[in-house]
Amino acid sequence: MSQQDQRDSSRGDGDSIRDRFLARRRFLMLSGSVAGVGVLAGCGGTTEEGTATETDTEAPTPTSQPEPTATETETETETAEPEQPSLAERYPGLRILSPEPENAEAAERATYGDYITPREEHYIRNHYPTPDIEESEWAVSLTGLVDSEIDLSMEEIKRSFSTESITHTMQCAGNGRSYFEPQVGGNQWTFGAVGNTVWTGTPVSEILEYYGAETSDGYFLTVMGGEHPEGEDVFTRSIPMEKVMDDTLLAYNMNGAPLASDHGFPVRLLVPGWFGCNNIKWVNRMHVMETMVIGDEWEEPGAPEDGQRTYTHWQQYSYRVVPEEDTRAEHYEDIPVYDTREQMERTDEIRNAYMYDQVEKSIIAYPGEEQTVTPSPSGTIEVIGVAWAGDDAVESVEVSTDGGETWGDAEFFGPVGEATGWRQFRYVWENPEPGEHMLASRATDERGYAQPATISAPEDQIRGIENDMYPWNQGGYGENAYESLAVTCTVEEQ
Predict the structure, then answer these.
(1) Most buried among 98, 142, 370, 374, by the most CB within 10 A?
(2) Across the chain, which distance is largest between two alpha carbons, in Å?
(3) DSSP assignment of 414-437
C-alpha cells in the first residue's frame, strides 16, 4: 500500500471517489498506455476530462440527491437547499491541503505520465475563498496609461478580439515547499502543485493596442483579482510589458471548457511559462503604469475595523527569495531581468529574486513512490516523467537509479508544442537489480541551466543556485532540487 493509500485508509475514505477515479490511471500506467491518453483527453473534451460540459458557474450537482425532509416550520413550497459537492468530490484526483480557501495538489505521481493534465488533477491555489460570480455581471477595467479607460464585459473580451490557445505548464511558486528544512510556513505542497493544460483566451496585447495603452518595453501591466473580501489585500501582480505583448492572454477556457470557479471563472490572466502567482484569477482590473506596483500610493484604508489594505503585498513582500538574514524583501520599481534564474545570479542588482519565469524542473511519474515494480520479459523497466523550464525549452533529461551517483540519458516522446508546455521523457532501465532503489531525474534547459541536487541550509545564506544547491528561503519558493523529488521503489525478482 502506498503512503497516499495509507493516509486515505486512515481517514476512513474506503473506496472513495478519488480511489475509483485513479484506479483506471494506475492500470494504464502499469500497462504502459497512460502516456498518450492525456492529449486526447485535454483537447477533445472526452469523458476522461470529466468536466468538459460544465458551465462552471456552479459546482456540478451529484447524480442523485436525498429527498428533502420537511420540518414543522416549512411550508409546502419550501425545500431544503441541496448540499453542494465538496472540494474532494469535485476534484477526485487531488489531495486537499485546505478546503477554504481552496488549496489542493495532485495526489498521485501518475498524473505526470500524461501530456495534458485533466481538470480533476490540476492543482488549485487560492488565497481567499472562491467567489460566486455571474459572468454577465462581470467586467474588467482597463486604467492608467491608456487613451481611454474602459470597463470590458466578458462578451466584449470574447467576441471583439481574436482567440488564441497555448499549452502552459502552470506551477505554484510554493510547489515543493514541504521539502525545506527547517520547515517554512504556508501550505505544505509536495510535488503536485503543477499541471500542464491548454488555455484559451484573448491576447492582452490586442486589448491594449485597441485602447491606446503605453506598450513600450520598460512599462508594466499591473493586474488585480476581484476575489478579496472587504478590507483585505488585493491579489495584484505587475507583469513587464514585453511579456504582456508577447504571449499573455485573458483566459476563459481550460482544456476546451469554461474555467471552473476554483480556477478563476470567468476570466484569469495567463502568463505562459511563468509561475502560477502571476496568473491572476478573477481579473477585474488591468492598470498600465511606468513601474511595478510599489509605495504608499498603492496602500489604501479599508473599513475602520479592517485597517489598511494593500495592492503591493503579493508583488513586493511575497513571492520573493528572502534568505534567513533578511527582515523583508528589497522593493524595486523595476529590475533589469525577469528570468528568475538570471535574477538569482545578479544579487548585486536584485537582492531578492521575484518569482517570474519558472526554473528548470522534472518529476518522475512511474515508478511511483514506494511502488513495487517487475521488469519486463526483456529485463527492463521504463521510467516515465515530465520536464519543463518556463519560457525556455528543455534540452535534455537524465535519470539516475542510484540516488544521483550515476546518470543515464532519457529520451523525449509525445507532443512537441510550445516551450511553455512540458516535455514527456522515458528512460529504459536495463537489468535492474532486485531490491530497493532511489530514482531521480535532472532536467537541463536550452541555456545549460540544470537542476541542483539539494536545498541549502538557512545558515548558508545564499540567494541563488550555487554549489549544486537551491537557496533555502523564508517563503519556500521556487524549489527544484532533484533529490527532493526522488522516488524510492522496489524491484521484484523476475
Answers:
(1) 142
(2) 74
(3) S----TTS-EEEEEEEESPPSEEE
Q: What predicted TM-score, i.e. pTM, was given to this entire model?
A: 0.84
Give start-end residues of each CATH 2.60.40.650 domain in the chain.
361-491
d(CA 278, CA 294): 16
> Which residues in 150-259 belong to E strands, given as ranges?
150-153, 164-171, 194-203, 220-225, 236-240, 249-254, 257-258
Give yes or no for a contact between 85 and 59, defined as CB atoms under 8 angstroms apart. yes
Helix %, strand %, coil % of the chain (to 5): 20, 30, 55
Fold that domain 135-177+197-345 belongs to in CATH: Sulfite Oxidase; Chain A, domain 2 (3.90.420)
Residue range(s) occupied by CATH 3.90.420.10 in the chain: 135-177+197-345
Tell me the per-residue pLDDT of 66-84, one tens digit each, with 9 for 90 and over. Answer: 443 434 334 444 556 677 8
CATH class of 361-491: mainly beta
Q: How far is residue 274's CA from residue 174's CA, in Å, rounded to a whole number?
A: 13
List Cβ neighbours of 66 (8 Å cut-off, separation of 6 or more): none
Query: Could you tell me if residue 119 is left (phi over 0), alpha (psi between -120 and 50 degrees) or otherwise beta?
Result: alpha
Contact assessment for residue 351 and residue 311, using Cβ atoms and an 8 Å cutoff = no
Residue whose C-alpha cell reads 480557501 in the numeric block: 101
CA angle 58, 64, 68 (to 5 degrees): 90
How many degrees, rounded to 5, is the angle at CA 8 between CA 7 and CA 12? 115
C-alpha cell at 244: 504582456
Distance CA 125, CA 144 (A): 29
- Which segments of the chain have a pLDDT < 50? 1-18, 20-21, 24, 27-77, 303-304
Sign of CA dihedral 454, 459, 460, 465: positive
Q: Which helix (H) or strand (E) holds 156?
A: helix 154-159
CA-CA distance, 146 to 144, in Å (whole number)?
Answer: 6
Q: Would the CA dihedral through 175, 179, 181, 183 be positive or negative?
A: positive
Which segments of 136-292 are extended strands (E)? 139-144, 150-153, 164-171, 194-203, 220-225, 236-240, 249-254, 257-258, 268-270, 283-289
Please tell me the predicted confidence (pLDDT) of residue 296.
87
- The answer to whether the beta carbons of residues 2 and 109 sit under 8 Å apart is no
Whose grid coordinates read 503512503? Answer: 3
CB 239 within 8 A of CB 215: no
CB 471 within 8 A of CB 323: yes
Residue for grid cell 502506498 = 2
